[in-house]
Design brief:
Layout lengths: L2 H11 E9 L8 E7 L10 H11 L4 E4 L7 E7 L4 E2 L3 H14 L11 E4 L2 E9 L4 E5 L5 E8 H7 L13 E8 L2 E7 L3 H5 L24 E11 L6 E9 L2 E3 L3 H15 L5 E8 L7 E9 L5 E8 L1 E10 L4
Parallel strand pairs: 2-3, 4-6, 11-12, 13-15
Antiparallel strand pairs: 1-2, 1-18, 3-4, 4-5, 6-7, 7-8, 8-17, 9-10, 10-11, 12-13, 13-14, 15-16, 16-17
């Protein structure tokens, strides 16, 4: 077999990939993301099962699969966890936007790309700051503050290490959806000491979807622990510090939860017709600091008009991954 034949076989059986650390400009911080480029030839298109196998091999919270270019201004991506395909997630969206607008050397990318096409719909993307490579994605929203609230008794049952940090037994916590199927339980804590005491849920138990209103009981509920008005040693500004727990799992950067939190705070504390900016710092306790920006605009009726997620990403690795057998 000659060199050209070997090269052709490798190209047919392997896909190019890169990995990015998202919501950071420092390698080995932020939230890792695998970006896999699908073959140009539709006859060698991957099945959903093959994509899932590759995502499971990377074993990251999410991996994305980039479709061949079909429109100059649009790039289509599929988003997979290790278990399933999902329609939307924050750090894959910012990672993809950062790749196309800041990192890709493909002349077809760059300024010409204005839209990410996902299973959740089209997402407008743009460069927010060329010097820092910050990108912005205007995300879909269909917000809901749910009627039920989560009791302190239930919180302490799932996270007993937090019991010493609450003095009022009647405190309750809100549940919120940024879109149907993507919901959060917000637990505001009194201090960074309390945030450091957060542990995975007892027995890996998830928050029941029964807490959500009728018609909204799809998807998983992320438990988002927050401390507001923290003086940040790096930015020298006040930020929201956060941690996200889903059963036994902790994520260093959860753009969807940060977006939900920003929308909830704006709806409950903001004024009609105003724009509010939030800086959320997540992942510090994991040694993977992530800086997540969210801007929320209310219309004249005090409804959420726009949610814009911002951040940056840094390239960490690149290579080829073997295409799994059918």
């Amino acid at each position: 077999m000659n060199i050209q034949s070997t090269y052709n076989i490798l190209n047919m059986t392997h896909l190019k990939f890169v990995t990015l650390d998202v919501f950071t400009s420092t390698p080995y911080s932020g939230n890792p993301l695998a970006v896999v480029f699908l073959p140009d030839d539709d006859s060698t298109a991957l099945t959903q099962s093959q994509k899932q196998t590759i995502a499971r091999e990377f074993n990251l919270s999410e991996s994305i699969f980039v479709h061949p270019v079909r429109e100059k201004s649009k790039r289509t991506i599929d988003i997979f966890t290790t278990d399933c395909e999902i329609p939307f997630a924050g750090h894959p969206t910012i990672g993809a936007a950062s790749w196309f607008l800041s990192h890709s050397v493909d002349p077809a990318d760059g300024d010409g790309v204005t839209t990410l096409s996902t299973k959740s719909g089209d997402i407008p993307i743009s460069v927010q700051n060329r010097e820092t490579n910050y990108v912005a994605a205007r995300i879909a929203h269909n917000t809901r503050i749910h009627t039920a609230r989560f009791s302190l008794k239930e919180l302490v049952r799932l996270h007993p290490t937090l019991a010493p940090f609450f003095t009022r037994p009647d405190v309750t916590f809100p549940l919120f959806s940024i879109v149907n199927g993507m919901s959060q339980l917000f637990i505001e804590l009194p201090s960074l000491e309390a945030l450091a005491a957060v542990t995975p849920a007892t027995g890996g138990e998830l928050v029941s979807a029964d807490y959500l209103d009728d018609g909204w009981r799809s998807g998983l509920i992320c438990v988002y622990f927050i401390v507001r008005d923290v003086e940040d040693s790096i930015t020298k500004k006040k930020v929201i510090r956060s941690r996200m727990i889903l059963g036994t799992l902790e994520d260093p950067a959860t753009g969807s939860s940060a977006s939900g939190l920003a929308a909830y705070l704006t709806l409950t504390e903001g004024k009609a017709g105003q724009n509010y900016q939030y800086h959320v710092v997540q992942g510090v306790e994991m040694g993977r600091r992530s800086d997540i920006g969210v801007g929320v605009t209310l219309d004249g009726d005090k409804m959420v008009e726009q949610v814009v997620l911002t951040g940056t990403a840094v390239s960490v690795s690149e290579g080829k991954v073997l295409v799994p057998a059918h």
